[in-house]
Structures are given as structure tokens and as C-alpha cells.
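new request in #modeling-help
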Amino acid sequence: MPRPKLAVWKFSSCDGCQLSLLDLEDELMAVAGAVEIAYFLEATRATAKGPYDISLVEGSITTAHDAQRIQKVRKQSKMLVAIGACANSGGIQALKNFADHEDFIRRVYARPGYISTLATSTGIADHVPVDFELRGCPVNKHQLVEVLTAALSGRKPNVPRYAECMECKRRGTVCVTVARGEPCLGPVVQAGCGGLCPAVGRGCYGCFGPMETPNTAALAARFADLGRTPAAIRDGFRLFNANAEAFREEGDRHDQA
Amino acid sequence: MSTASGILSRNDLSALFDALAARGLEVIGPTVSEGAIVLAPLDGPDALPAGWTDVQAPGAYRLHPRDDGALFGHTTPVGGWKRFLHPPTVRLFQAATTADGFTITEGAPPPPRQAFLGVRACDLTAITRLDAVFQGNPFTDPIYAGRRAGAFIIAVTCAQAGPMCFCASMDSGPDLRAPYDVALTEILESDHRFLLEAGSAEGAALLADLPLTPATDRDTAARDRQITQAADQTRALPPGTAERLGRMLDHAHWNAVAARCLSCGNCTMSCPTCFCATVEDSSSLDGATAERHRVWDSCFSLDFSYIHGGSVRESGASRYRQWMTHKLSSWHDQFGTSGCVGCGRCITWCPVGIDITEEAATFAAVDAARHPVEA
Ligand code: SF4
Ligand code: SF4
Ligand code: SF4
Ligand code: SF4
């Protein structure tokens, strides 16, 4: 039986999620044994033609060319998995959605005329149907293997949608909000990182995007009690998942500019 | 029944650790970490939180120094003892595929043998609540039972209650209400010492190995004074809460709480009696091996009530209601006791400071308005 064909695609992104795949080390050989890595430019220049059984898509859509290319990827893919904050919600580069992107271009590039870009950075699901969204900035490599394993064995991946606090508590971390008054996004952020930031005494930055039922308004009210200004509350929601619906709306509510 | 007791000097406290180690027990107890008093394995008396106390409020916890060098001069430590009896994550088994199915290659890890040093009255009662869940009839959970059987319990007398404590109104303290091996009372007046009282044959045997001097009436009087002091509590659960909540499942106030509740699960995870867990299966990429783990779950997650087609408890109101009614009302139907021992952790460790006693008081008030007492 031929092995399922895996393709890895890159759009606007930093390559960090693809690196998570390369960073698998021990499991990488097992992945290479279980699937035919048919298209993965970050790892190898050799490519095999589609269609592909599983496509992992990293990055957001920021150009007209990307918007066309993702349609082609979708047509060639049986299962499309959007990996990482960029592919899920537009990534940190979606901050341009809240400003005048022409202004950014003029400030950054010496010859702005060469730059052709959309006014927004958006996630893959805004353009084509997505079969599974794997969260994170970057994704958690164990969750990545779990998604591949589940796809290969035809089961639902074990990727919980509840709050980061659940991982934090299981790990036995002392809550930074309660014990230090440090604003933490954990209660509205999906679990998956294992509780990294609170374990080193920092509030969660929201790499894994909104949890299943994010009550952002209640958390923002708590941040205000802890002394955060409206601008700081807005900026807290406008990070790696700034354009994810729940975070975008909460950020906008505190935008008094 | 053993009546062994005696006084251990502060300077001889390492003898207690040595005697526990000689029995092959890992000592778990209070220690300062990450700005709080947590429960963790202790190397010796130096790891105890000497000269620290805690100040707790809804959604807030701070450490404060105290000038008397007290080792147990705090209230509830973070988290409680649950994690040492019902671990947050535990492997149930490992399996390998065979020609005609699969075979179990490994079971759960063997239970550790632990000594719990400094179990407070509320937490001692909480352990009996967990006993009823995990080893009450008709089912016994082997993982819990294995850890429970190996646990040596050194309870501690509370010298004062904190503002979050309400054990007195929950019938779970401040005096010790459940079996223990040794009860420890820290006495700071004149010389710093500990009154040790055996509660089991194992406890008496331990005391026999320690350099004790006889306890006097002065020592037992100090213990009783501490308990009286700790019974002075400002917080309480309104009477009749169990029946009342059962009658008010459709009340609009559940929506008002839900507007503030994050559905984050911190309350259930912090609660010393919440026992819910889910099982997670994982398999190797080639499908040759698989593992099943049991991990803490919470009724605040959507998957918790997922049956075919969707989650039964979609709204935040229905999930907060599940938590509060299970703790304070339906637990009585299920296990014959309250699911709450009045430790106050769910109040302190709720990131937005939702207070289960205040919510219960609100329900009592609206209920009273609805059903005025007949003259
Ligand atoms: S530190 Fe953050 S993630 Fe952890 S329990 Fe507190 S609020 Fe939740
Ligand atoms: S419900 Fe709250 S106060 Fe009661 S035992 Fe649980 S954590 Fe403690
Ligand atoms: S309150 Fe929720 S998490 Fe706690 S025991 Fe009940 S159902 Fe389980
Ligand atoms: S009551 Fe508090 S701790 Fe519990 S789920 Fe709601 S916000 Fe989280």
C-alpha cells in the first residue's frame, strides 16, 4: 500500500511552525516512515506532484497571489490542516488590519512601489474550508504529531479546546494573576503550550488563540481592576492572534484612539 | 486505641523527617514556591515555610512575613492534597498491537509511599470525601486506593482561620474530624515546640521513635485554645443551601454569575474534593503501540458534557450551575455529604474572584423574597 502523501505549504509566516516539524527529531523518522513527504521545501527541494492526502498550511494570506495559491492547495488536498497562529487567524502581521497598511509600507521600504500586498492579513479559513486548525505560535510539536497520527489512524485528534488554566493547574503552577496581580490571558486562551509562561512567572500572551467559550469581557474587566489601562488591555488582545474574532472584538472595545 | 503523645522540640524536628524516611516515606508538606505556600516534597525541616503566612481574598493571594518563625502559621496551602492521591495525569496502561488485537504491556505506575505533613482539618475531611468517591462501595479505583493505603497522615491544628475559611459552617473543622496517624500542634509560647498525638497504631509507633518529652496540661490547653480561635470565622454557607439550590435551577441569577465566570476551571481544579477526570488515548505513528492516560477534567469544559451531537451544557450558566449545585446540593444525594469542606480555595484561586458563599447568599436572599416566611 502506498504511504499517504504529505505536503507542507508556506504563506506569510516566520517558518517557526515548519521548524517545529523539523524539530521533532525522534519522531521525525517515524513521520518519514509513515507518510511520503511529497512537498516540503523547508526540508527538501525534491517535490512530488499532487494530489496530497494531508496538507499542512503555515502562514497567512497577505497578497493577491497567496489568495489564488491557497485555492490551488485546497483543490490538491484531501485534508487541509492550518498550522499556527498565522494560518489560523492572520498572525502577528494581522496588526496591519488595525492600521493603514500603505503607511506601514512607506515607513519600512525604501522603494514602496515594489510592494504589492493586500490591506489585511487573514487566516486560511477566511479563504478556503479548513479541516483542522492546529493552534500555537509556534505549534506544539507533540500536538502536531498527534494530528498526523490521528489523521493516519482515522480518529479525532486529542487537542482540547478548553482554557490554558487547566494545563496550568495540572502542572501545579501558582496562578500569576491571583498570587502576583499579573494580568494573564490564560482563562480565555486555548490550552496546548503546556503552561509555559505562567510557569516562569509571566502572564499568558495568547499564542494558542481563543478557547472554546472565551469570556473576554469578564477578563478585561479584571485586568482593569488590576490597573491595566484601556490601551494596555487592547494591546494585550492584539498580539499573535489579534485578528481572531473574540480577541479582535475585545481589543476593539478598548480602543479609544 | 493509642493515646501516645509527647512534645517534640523545634530543634529536634529533623528527627521526625528521619523517622519518616526510615519508613520509606517521601515527605510532602508546605513550602514557599512561586510566591505562595504550596505542597511539595520536602528534604527536611528547613524546607518548611518558617516565618511566613498567607493573606487570601477573592481572586488574590499574598505571602506575608511573621516575626515568630512559625512553620505552620498559615492557612490552606495552594492546591491541597488531591494531586498526591489522584494525580493530575497518570498512565493507565500501555498496549501493543498483536496479530489478533492488542496486548497490555504496562499498567499504571506503582503507587508512591508518602507522608502528608500538615494536613488541616478541612483537607482531612476532603480526603474522606475522596475516599467515598474512589473507594466507597461498590467500586474501588486501584490508583487512588494504592496511594491512599500508603499515605501516612500528619494532621496539623489550625491556630487561626483566614478570611476565606468556612469549615465551621461545613462541619469539617476546625477540630480534626477524620482519622489521622499523628496530630501536630505547633506551640510558639515560651519555647517553640510541637505537641504530637497519635491517632493510629502506626502513629504511636512513629512517636516511639522520636525524642519526646511528656506533654503537660499547658500543651493540651494551648491546642484547645487554637481550635477555639480558629472557629471564629467570618464566612459561612447559608443554612438550607443544599435544598434551595435544587429548587432554583431555572433562576435568572445563574446568568448573572455566568456573565462574570470565565469557564476556566480553576475552581474545580483547586477544589480538594473535585474528582473528575477524562481518559486520553495516544498511539504511535505506525499504530504499533498505544497509551491511555487519565487526566483531571472539569465540568467547565464543553467536552465534559459532550454526547453524540454536541455538549449538553453549552451555556456558561449551565456550567457554573453544574459546579455549584454538585458541590453544595447534589453531592448530598450522591454521597450523603456536602462536596464542599469550606476550604475557600475556589474563591481565592478564581482569577475573577467569584465567591461561592456569596452566590449562595444571593440565592438565599432571592429565595427569601420569593417565599416570605409565614407569620
Ligand atoms: S496563571 Fe494564567 S493560565 Fe495559569 S491559572 Fe492563572 S490565569 Fe490561568
Ligand atoms: S467548593 Fe470551594 S470552598 Fe468548598 S471545598 Fe471546594 S474549593 Fe473548598
Ligand atoms: S463540580 Fe464539576 S469537576 Fe467538580 S466533581 Fe462535580 S462535576 Fe466534577
Ligand atoms: S467560577 Fe471562577 S475559577 Fe470557576 S470557572 Fe468561573 S471564573 Fe473560573
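bot summary: The longest strand of chain B covers residues 89-98.
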